[in-house]
Amino acid sequence: MTRVIEETETYRIEVDQDIDTVIYTWTKPVSGEELRQGANALLAFAADNDLFKMIIDSNRIEAHTKADRTWLQEEWAPDIIDAGMMYSGVVYPGTLIAEMDIEQLMDGMDDSEHRSYITESLPEAREWIAEK
Q: Can you name the CATH fold of 2-130?
């Protein structure tokens, strides 16, 4: 069963209680301050709750700016891992640009114990994360 925790114009935070997972959905394309605010809302929720798995549905974001990618890699990702997130399923739009963007983003995060699964399919991400 999925329970909505917070919903704004740009994102939705839910908890899927069947698989003990936070599901974070970008509901529109964002960058800059909007991206940081939304990502930090997920970070705050993760820090306050005892969950170690998340799915990020970024189907609405085809590419990140260089500044956003750097911020996610150098600041946000270490903080969310410190908050206890060990596994993430990341859903991206099935375009070449999006694939290249997500590869660049994830390349900057390879040195952690955090494990990620990248896919174009939300059901596939859910299946992977349920096994963790």
A: Transcription Regulator spoIIAA (3.30.750)
**CA 38 – CA 94 distance, rounded (Å):** 22
Kind of pairing between the strands at 87-91 and 53-57:
parallel
Q: How far apart are the first and last CA of the chain?
A: 18
Segment (H or E) for 7? strand 2-7
Kindly give the confidence (pLDDT) of every residue in the chain, 132 residues in length, as a single tens digit, with 9 standing for 90 and above. Answer: 899 999 999 999 999 999 999 999 999 999 999 999 999 999 999 999 989 999 999 999 989 999 999 999 999 999 999 999 999 999 999 888 888 888 888 876 666 778 999 999 999 999 999 999
Q: Is 52 helix (H, G, I), strand (E, B) or coil?
A: coil
Instruction: Pick the closest to residue 41 from 76, 1, 78 (CA basis).
Output: 76
Show Cβ contacts of residue 128 under 8 Å, excluding neighbours closer than 6 positions: 89, 117, 119
